[in-house]
Amino acid sequence: MKKILIFTFCIIAFSANTMEKETTFNKELFDKAQSDGKVVIISSWIKYCSSCAGQMKILKEAKNDGKLNDIKFDNIEYFSFDVTNKNIADLFNVQYQTTLLIFKNNEEVYRSLGETTKNLIYEAIKSSI
């Protein structure tokens, strides 16, 4: 009985996180953002990953608030993608979920794996601007 309850809890927890996830990456929009001189943030996820949902929530909140602490988000573009999409994963050499990439001036300037701490994510973005 205990195992059934734990299993049920895990299914509910994982399914709650999957509702927040959506592939927003688009190569044409990525290229345009770079040509417009924007800082581009990309995160990878997979449907059962709760830490991915946490990372995406931090990034979406920053974008929706329009600022991250003292930096305006209007010159930053954010995309996310399902790491099982091999075309996108191969484009950025991403093998794992919760990979966070930051591009500036058409170059990758930051890469992390598994980072879900709000302050550290904000510092990475600040240091890339």
The biggest sheet, with number of strands, parallel, antiparallel or mixed sense and barrel status, is: 4 strands, mixed
Approximate strand percentage: 15-25%
**Strand order, largest beta sheet:** 4-1-5-6
Mean pLDDT: 82
Kindly provide the radius of gyration, computed on alpha-carbon positions and rounded to a whole number of angstroms: 16 Å
The CATH topology comes to Glutaredoxin
Number of structurally distinct domains: 1
Determine the CATH superfamily.
Answer: Glutaredoxin
Oligomer: single chain
- The gross shape turns out to be globular
CATH class: Alpha Beta
What share of residues is helical?
40-55%
Question: What would your notes on this structure say?
Answer:
The protein has 129 residues and is α+β, with helices and mostly antiparallel strands. It has a single domain, classed as 3-Layer(aba) Sandwich (Glutaredoxin), CATH 3.40.30. Helices cover 46% and strands 24% of the residues. Helix 1 (2-18) packs parallel to helix 3 (50-65).
